[in-house]
Design a protein that fits this description.
The protein is α/β, with parallel strands linked by helices and 279 residues long. The protein has one domain (17-272): TIM Barrel (Alpha-Beta Barrel), CATH 3.20.20. It has helices at 38-51, 72-87, 101-109, 126-134, 159-176, 196-204, 224-230, 238-251, 261-275; strands spanning 2-5, 8-11, 17-23, 55-59, 94-97, 114-117, 137-141, 184-187, 216-219, 255-258. The chain has an eight-stranded parallel beta barrel with strand order 3-4-5-6-7-8-9-10, surrounded by six helices. Helix 1 (38-51) packs across helix 2 (72-87), helix 2 (72-87) runs parallel beside helix 3 (101-109) and helix 3 (101-109) runs parallel beside helix 4. The protein is globular. The chain starts with a strand and ends with a helix. The relative contact order is 0.14.
């Protein structure tokens, strides 16, 4: 198995990849406003690479529960200057976290290599056409509803089965739209239209999704399910996120999306060293 994203290729098996989060937003749930200034965002991204980030995930629109949509022009204003500066300064793939084909196209044109699409193009195939034309990597994430509505009583008969069926449908449609399988990354979408119980079921069943033969991405960093279970505020959730990351890697997850790259990298490398010696 390998992942191809424009000029970048990652063969698997290999040590898990760290995807460092750079929110260029005023309203993200854990660091909104800290990196809205392009210079601050660039400096933070470079720091994450120095800590060990293999991928940088840059977003200009908050996807926290209840977040209000941002217009395309504003999203472009936030992210493009940062991508332009980073593309000449870092040697890791830049991922654009967006649901808008126009933003994805502009980001890829100025140096991004991956599109992280939380909507998985529910509104049509324009996003897929953009990704296919660029030869970019594509994160296909499961969600129920939109950021504005997704946590209003999400409902499943069997969340693992339904997420698995979603991946089956999307992989087929992505290939039909012109993507190669080696461009596709799968994400179960923790926090996107799931209750605490749904989330725990998905985390307990991550190994089920390795059957698709595609890299699995997991994003649990500072998310509200940790607070709901343990009563911890956003800035006190790192230990629980590290536990999730370690268990995820043991289950077969290959990419960890995190605010805390150095700490997650250390936890994951220790997990890999131990699991490699299982009998």
């Amino acid at each position: 198995m390998q992942l191809c994203a424009c000029q970048f290729t990652f063969p698997f098996p290999r040590p898990a990849l760290m995807m460092g989060i750079v929110n260029v937003t005023p309203d993200s749930f854990s660091d909104g406003g800290r990196f809205l200034d392009p210079a601050a965002a660039v400096a933070h991204a470079i720091e994450l690479v120095e800590q060990g980030a293999d991928i940088l995930d840059l977003g200009g629109e908050s996807t926290r529960p209840g977040a209000r949509p941002v217009g395309e022009a504003e999203e472009l204003r936030r992210v493009i200057p940062v991508i332009e500066q980073l593309a000449g300064r870092v040697r890791v793939p830049i991922s654009i976290d967006t649901t808008k084909p126009g933003v994805a196209r502009a980001a890829l044109a100025c140096g991004a290599s991956i599109v992280n699409d939380i909507a998985a193009s529910r509104s049509g195939e324009r996003m897929w056409e953009v990704v296919a034309a660029a030869g970019a990597g594509y994160v296909c994430m499961h969600s129920q509803g939109t950021p504005t509505t997704m946590q209003r009583e999400p409902c499943y008969v069997d969340v693992r089965t339904e997420v698995d069926a979603f991946f089956s449908d999307r992989i087929s449609r992505l290939v039909e739209a012109g993507l190669r399988p080696d461009q596709i990354i799968l994400d179960v979408g923790i926090g996107f239209g799931k209750t605490l119980e749904h989330t725990l079921q998905l985390l307990g069943g991550l190994g089920d999704f390795t059957r698709w033969g595609r890299p699995l991405l997991l994003g649990v960093s500072r998310k509200s399910f940790i607070g709901n279970l343990l009563g911890a505020p956003a800035d006190k959730r790192l230990p629980a996120a590290l536990a999730c990351a370690a268990l995820a890697v043991d289950a077969g997850v290959q990419i960890l999306r995190t605010h805390d790259v150095a700490e997650t990298l250390q936890a994951v490398r220790m997990t890999e060293a131990i699991t490699a010696r299982k009998k």
